[in-house]
Amino acid sequence: MATSIPSIACLGVIGRHNNPLHTTILPTTTDPKTGAPAPLRTPLQFSLLLSSTLDVFASRARHASASGTLLSGDFGLLHAVDDRLAAYGWETNTGVKFVVVVDMRGRTLDRTGGSTASSSKSAAAAAAAAASATGVGLREGELKVVFRAMQTAYVRLLQNPFYDPDEAAAGAAGAAALGKRITSRKFAEEMRRIGEVWVPGSVNAL
Amino acid sequence: MDEYPAGSLDHNLPLLVVSGLTSGPTKPLLTDPDLKEQSILIRSELPPLDSREAKTILRCIQEADATALPWNPQDGDKKHRFKIKTIGRDFLLPPRRARLPEDFEAPLSPPVLHSPFSPLSPGSTLYPDGLIDTRWLSKHQELIPSICLCFYSLTSDPTLATLHDNQLKTDINALKNAISRSGYKCRLVAVIMSDQAPDSMGAFQERLENIRWGTGLDPKTSLFVLPTRRSETELETAVDSILSAVFVQASEYYRELGRRSRKKKGRGIAPQPTIPPTSGTSHTLSLQGWNVRYDFKAGVFAEFRQEMDVALRSYEQAYESLFGQDVLETVPSWSPRFNHGRLVADTLAIRILRCLLWTGQSTAAVRRWQAHRARTSDFLDRRGRGTQNYGWQAWEARWAQTMANLIEKVEYPELAPTSQSLFRPPEKALSAERLQPWELLHHPGYWYRTAAQHALDRRKLAHLIPEDSRRAPDVSEVSKSAAKAYNSFDTYMCPEPYEEYPLDGEGTNHGRQILTYLNSARTEFHKRQQVRLAADVALDAAKELELLKQWKQLLELLTPLWRDMYFRKEGWLDATESLSWILRRAAVEADQADLVVALDWELLNSRYSQQPNWHYDLTKSLDNVKVDQRPEITIRDENITSFLTSSFVFKHDEGRAGQTCPAQLVIKSNAFPKSPPVVLKSIQVGFEGSVRTLHLKHVPNSGQEAGSRKILVTSVGLKEVESEAQDSDAESESGNRSTPSVILQGEDDLTLYPGQTRVFQVDVPLREAGEAQASEVTVIVAPETFQLAYSMKLREDNAIGLWYTTTGRVKVTKINAQNIKVLPRPPKMEVKFINVLKQYYAGEPIHIVVDIANEEDIDAQTKLDVHLYGQDVPAFKAQVEDGDSQASTGEGEEAKLNGLDAGTIGTSKSTKATVIIDPINRPTAYDLTIKAWYNLVSDPATPIVQIVAFQINIVNPFEASYDLVPRLHREPWPSIFDPEGIQAVTEEGEHEVPSQPMGLAQKWCLVTKFGSFATEDIRVLDLDVKVLETQGAARCTVSKNQTLPADGLTMAPRTMEEARFDLVAQKLSLDDRAPSTADLAFTIKWQRASGDRPATATPNSTTFLLDPFYVTVTEPRVLASVSYSRTSSPSSSKIPSTVSSSSSAGAGAGPPLILLDITIENPSNHFLTFGLAMEPSEGGFAFSGAKATTLNVLPVARRTVTYRLLPLVSGGAWIRPQLVVRDKYFQKVLKIIPTEGMRKEGDGFAIWVPDNVDEDEKAVGGERTREGEGDVKVESS
Hints:
The complex is a heterodimer of chains A (about 210) and B (about 1300). Chain A is of the alpha+beta class and about 210 residues long. Chain A is built from 5 helices and 8 strands; from the N terminus they run E-E-E-E-H-E-E-E-E-H-H-H-H. The two termini of chain A are about 30 Å apart. With about 1300 residues, chain B is α+β, with helices and mostly antiparallel strands. Chain B folds into 6 domains: about 15-95 and about 145-265, Rossmann fold (3-Layer(aba) Sandwich), CATH 3.40.50; about 560-570 and about 580-630, no CATH class; about 630-825, Immunoglobulin-like, CATH 2.60.40.10; about 830-955, Sandwich (Immunoglobulin-like); about 960-1110, Immunoglobulin-like; about 1115-1275, Sandwich (Immunoglobulin-like), CATH 2.60.40.10. The longest helix of chain B is centred in the N-terminal third of the chain and has 36 residues, at about 230-265. Classes of the chains: A alpha+beta (about 210), B alpha+beta (about 1300). At the A-B interface, helix 1 and strand 5 of A face helix 12, helix 17, helix 19 and helix 20 of B.
């Protein structure tokens, strides 16, 4: 029998002014016609989904400032949009937000054929072990490794002297200036790699 | 949830019938005509109570109705939950046994009759193999009360008491009997109301006891006395306590029923129906089915008792049995019992969910929700018609909606809109598990959204229904297609395919359904300030509205969103774009011309994705839109982004009024590459501050090939015109129109090609001083069909200004380049200092000349302000050539002369002003500032200022040092033996004292050395020492010892000069022998040697104050003085030196004879004896005179001893006589003080042996020598 385990469906980097900086969409399902791996939603839907997490960021920040509690970077589960997709969030202290959208049934582990979408055998094995031990849920904080990896990649991007974060974050100046996204190919590749490599229960840095 | 049969899902509450409190009409409990026919009437004969108290009590009871309460265990103090029905005095109970069908032939044995709601009774809808239905539920919830609460009154009239009480007893007993006869176990509770107060009830105790005995009711549980003479709140409490007590009874009642169900289940056999089924399959309900029925009943009864955990267990059991082997699995999918079974399963599942939610197990509830879906889906895939049909999606949508409704009913405080949390944390027992995020119970908005998603899927699947099935069965070959449809479509709680999506006519309104779900979701999201998610949902809703062609609604939904949407503000382009296109389609349909234009304007930006086959031509925007009049649209960049960006750059930070500053207006188009160029009608740049509005007009340029160029820099000439002349320009602001104001106008071709950057270079004339900034750029597009004004704010965002050059290169200028600082008109009056000296010295008056030259084109009326700053500002005056003069006394740190009128200076003329500062005595520094205020004759209102400053450094021209050496006063001392000499003091008195001092006189020589510290030659004209003051009754006179050359002594920088002054001090009185001091001042009169100044000018004088010197002493002293003689013979010693010197002139060679006089002064009152001892010299000199002698000196007298020395050395050397003068009495050696021509050497002294006496005498000063000679002569004689 096939077991479904969570996998990352979408990674989003959102700037200080709530402007989208980067989106990586990963296939977590198969196209019913061709059988090829396909994303669960359209890019627009993912975009809207990422945008909707900003409500939660804002609400938590409001709540935190009202109650005087300081927020740590990890926002944990932001919300689950349905029984498959759930968004987890992280905010750096410069206001850059990382959002991971997890498809709770993103990977199918067949006892016979191995994983369909997973990238490596060891990852699949680890995931299988995790799945068999406790079912296919997620614990709070299990995505920390992903956020850490994303942050590392983002920091690496910032270290690039040719990347101007202010240009990308010039949101307050006017709507016209918005829409500048991260164009670094290396960053995009790194995001995709993070999205592909992660399996529930990953503890080592990605 | 509303789609499920009414009552099937309600939370069960004990039914309480309240009888006897109202006489008005009430709703009968039993309405079903079939059941009514056989119903059992329960009636009380006593009239209902109709008092005021009765009404109050009825209201209290009705308020206690718990049907509308949320589905959670409110931990309030209410101990009871009831569903309350009010009746008059009678109600009907349903029949216990069903009747036999009429056509039934009497069997052999009498038939066993069952309840009309049981599948055993042939008349029941469940007969013969149904499980359970809502009618059974409603029987217990609506028809059979657990408690019948009867109200009676206790009369207080003693005459009627017995009669009344007996009536009461009879009635209660009759009721009791009627109920027990009916077979139902419902409890009768009597409440006897009395119009007395509670504490006066003792009087009625006997009567009440009597009633109790007569009716057999327990006063604790079923007979209550309610005195009504008390306050309303007390009454309420009393009613409440009765209800609480009754609730225990009700629970007891349902517990009994539950026990009965369990007992039946425990029997383990399936009961046989009254009549075995003869039609259909003759299938009867299996034992498992019966178990489901019993468990369901047990669960419901537990729920009646509000024991939700017990109910949960029973429901779960029923659920498991239902999906177990022998119940649903055996039902064929074509059978109506199949869907019926599913309904029971759903009902059970929902009741289970409610129990879980009730007990706070929200995560378990979500899991249960999912489990039921999975189970149903699995079951349908195996036994039913699968899940790939609209029926399943309809169920899914309903299932999600059901959850949303449940959550709403439960009212978790964690999910309240105010709590800010979107989902409920898991219950403690599960929090350590790996949870699915969805298992944290989210608020209903998410569930509605899921429902909407399934509704969408349902429509998709409905649209896939083949045409055959969509035809109504009576039209086509009935049996065949109907059967086919029946087999392939799941119609559980949804219409047949030909009704779902008929070939012709209206089917299920999917859009409406989806919208309902979406709107519910949107409301929930809005409540929790999830604006972006709400917008997302709105977008989905808009798509539905578009399908429904509800343009107006669509516009109402999206227009406010579009105006200030987060997506645009935060740069979510795809969302913005998607929304904009939907809105545009709607706007076209609804003929909203302004919206269409604004949308087209926004969508022209190439950062959006290009729609294929779209013209992107603004002029064609309104092609399919009906407009009444030409719309004029004004939009701002705060709301709508555009493909145009603008900037305005001043080349310089600062400019001056009256000049121009080059500036560039940059308009950059980011339109889609293939779109036609946009022709702007005009561009306006608004400024804050003193710069005038800039206005560029479009003038088509025929020969323009400029479209190919990416950056096009054009130079535009500007004219200052009054804006009233701009009548043709409709866009000029109303403010401008009413008051004539000047604008800057230019003309150029304003065609903007896609991707092009237009740079308009202008020279902005600056007119007024102050800060100015370009604040807003407005472009106006006016094709034939509409006019659009788009304003872009130029914000202070510290962005770097770019300056385009015609070669296409871009230079970075500065940040916030739209700002300029306009300085006032530059002064063209030149003010400068002329003939300024390098160095100014203390003691000289300072003349500074200022030249004021008017280089303006117009005559200027000028005034001067002279300011002098520094420490202790001296007095100064300022004078304008041929004009005003002012003087300041100068005090403190600052002195000013304001408004010195310099008159009108003609153009290219000049005038001079002189500032004269009084001499200053010390080195210091001053700042001299001269402000020239002037205004041009043509513009007297605008003052213009020119300022020059100069620092004056003042140094001392000289430094000096002083030495006071004693000399021998040649005058004889007054003799105490001469009365004339000393009498004068006593005779003349004090007032005459200064004129004729009579005391001892002593002589000194003041040696001053002064050096020039000036940087140039200085001519010293005179030197002078003044006695400023003497201390200690003495008179002091100074005489100059030397004379300077007549034209002064010129001193080069850094040279030293010496001057000697003789100083004679005489005590006023001979008796006064105290020492006295004198304060002296040394003055140098000088001029600068560089003779710019006329020699007649008053010389400057520099004065040095000397420290006080002792000018008379009281101690005896020994003064040595020397004179020379050529004569070597001792006899010639008495020859005056003039003679000897004249003779010596002839003598020529040979060492001179040196006369050494040792004068001992004794100014004291003591007679002193001194011993003199002269050591012979080895080869230095030979001497004549006493080698050792004793000298007695009288008080106030002096004596001189002369030695003749013959030097043995050749001339030009020093000899050192070893002479010791000792005070005999004090045995103290006195120091011998050398005078002129001698020098001090160690303790002793040295005498100069000259080569030539003449020379030496000259050097020493012959006059004095001669006097000394005479003195010696007197003394020695």
